[in-house]
Amino acid sequence: MNSQNIYDDNEFFRLYSILNSKPNGAPDSIPTFRFLEKIKSTKTQPKIQCVLELACGNGWFSNYMATKENVKSVRAFDLSENMLDLAKRIHSHPVISYELADMETIQLPNQSFDLGFSSLALHYVLNFKSLVQSIHQSLNPGGHFFAIIEHPIYTAPTVREWIPNTQDPPSTGSCNMTRGEMIWPLYDYQVEGDRVVDWIVNGVLKRHRTMSTYLNIFMDCGFDIRGIEEFSPPTMELNNTVHLEIDRHRPKFLILSVQKHIE
Ligand SMILES: C[S@@+](CC[C@H](N)C(=O)[O-])C[C@H]1O[C@@H](n2cnc3c(N)ncnc32)[C@H](O)[C@@H]1O
Question: Superkingdom of the source (predicted)?
Answer without folding.
Answer: Eukaryota
